[in-house]
Design goal:
The structure is a single chain. The chain contains 10 helices and 10 strands. The strands form 2 sheets. It has an 8-stranded mixed beta sheet, with helices on both faces. Strands 3-4 form a two-stranded antiparallel ribbon. The longest helix is centred in the middle third of the chain and has 14 residues. Strand 7, helix 6 and strand 8 form a beta-alpha-beta unit. It has about 300 residues and is α/β, with parallel strands linked by helices. It is about 30% helix and about 15% strand. It has one domain: Aldolase class I (TIM Barrel), CATH 3.20.20. The structure holds iron/sulfur cluster. Iron/sulfur cluster binds next to loops.
Length: about 300
């Protein structure tokens, strides 16, 4: 695997661009409820209507830009006060871009290589809805120490005002990743599941079929915050819920239907989870996802 030069093919943000950015986006290492998230590249052209970049006023940045070079991003993670070698789960480039975009991917793999060269065995989560190639899988299989999980976001949403990228792209990526996975694990990240948008019996059955091509499946709802609702309204998109919410929304009746669809599917579908950490632990056959056992 070729390791790109620091900074790679993506231009660093200049001072003026940095000054105009939400300070939260300039924080490369984010403490999340079950690990650390490392985001040193921002910007994405995929235009998902529910993108969390609405919350940072960053949705209009379509060309990925780097906050710093890959080596400095790695160093920032290593010196973070909550990073524990071999224990803290790490998510890479999951907030403000897609790690499998062509210009972003060399940086993702450079980071994975640095983590692996440091012989770290932490869980590393890579979340994408974009294209995964056999070469990507070979590179992931070539990592010797880090425990990589590739989570492929698939929604089945066919309203291209809300999700312009066809869900078949993600479905293909998942099938390919699962078929090639040797040292890494491939998880179906079925989200966002939204009433009235992608919850017909056909949608559920299609996702259940796809779950055969994954080591585990996670399903979750929509993050519908004020900023995202405003975007929906400004663009005349159907609003999925009457009210916004701080956490992701998942109606109970829909959960029951998902569980019923899972119970009646053909044998061979992967196990279903509501929590990413549970799915990743299961996929790797490793308990104690974030190394909390034994910590008083
Ligand atoms: S792929 Fe991710 S970062 Fe890009 S627009 Fe969609 S939700 Fe936002």
């Amino acid at each position: 695997m070729a390791t790109p030069r620091p900074g790679g093919r993506i231009r660093l943000l200049d001072e003026r661009e940095r000054a105009g950015m939400d300070p939260a986006l300039l924080e490369m290492v984010e403490y999340r409820k079950s690990g650390l998230s490392l985001n040193w590249i921002v910007g994405c052209p995929l235009d998902c209507g529910y993108c969390v970049r609405h919350l940072f006023g960053n949705y209009s940045l379509k060309v990925p830009r780097a906050l710093t070079d890959d080596a400095e991003a790695f160093a920032a993670l290593m010196r973070h006060r909550f990073f524990r070698p071999h224990a803290t789960p790490v998510q890479l480039l999951n907030r403000a871009t897609d790690p499998m975009l062509a210009p972003v991917k060399p940086h993702l793999f450079a980071m994975l290589r640095m983590l692996d060269d440091a012989r770290l065995t932490n869980h590393v989560l890579v979340i994408t809805r974009w294209r995964v190639t056999p070469e990507d899988c070979a590179a992931l299989n070539g990592l010797r120490h880090v425990r990589v999980t590739l989570l492929v976001t698939y929604s089945g949403i066919d309203d291209d005002r809300i999700e312009p990228v066809d869900s078949t792209v993600a479905a293909e990526s998942l099938r390919l990743a699962y078929a090639h996975a040797d040292r890494f694990r491939a998880v179906l990240y079925w989200r966002p599941l939204v009433p009235g948008l992608n919850d017909t019996d056909t949608h559920l059955a299609t996702a259940m079929e796809l779950s055969r091509h994954a080591h585990a499946t996670v399903f979750t709802g929509l993050f519908f915050r004020d900023e995202i609702r405003d975007y929906y309204r400004a663009h005349g998109l159907p609003e999925p819920y009457e009210h916004t919410a701080r956490r992701k929304v998942f109606p109970e009746h829909l959960e029951r239907r998902v569980l019923a669809a899972a119970a009646s599917r053909a044998p061979g579908g992967s196990a279903l989870f509501r929590k990413t950490s549970c799915a990743v632990s299961y996929a790797h056959g490793l308990a104690d996802y974030n190394g909390h056992v034994g910590v008083r």
